[in-house]
User: Which sequence fits this backbone?
């Protein structure tokens, strides 16, 4: 995960949120998680809580 990967993730986050979408990274690989945590942008990609019924569907 280098600066190009980070730039890609941030661009997708920007485009998605501009269109009213929630952008998440469900279970990112450890290297991706480490880099986004180090940069402090992990909170941007946190998964929103879902009701139990939605998770089971």
Assistant:
């Amino acid at each position: 995960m280098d600066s190009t990967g980070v730039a890609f993730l941030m661009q997708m986050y920007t485009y998605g949120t501009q269109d009213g979408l929630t952008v998440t990274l469900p279970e990112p690989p450890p290297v991706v998680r480490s880099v986004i945590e180090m940069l402090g942008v992990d909170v941007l990609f946190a998964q929103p809580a879902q009701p139990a019924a939605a998770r089971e569907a």
In short: The first helix runs from residue 3 to 18. Residues 2 and 35 are 9 Å apart (CA to CA). The chain has a mean pLDDT of 86. Residues 3-49 form one domain.
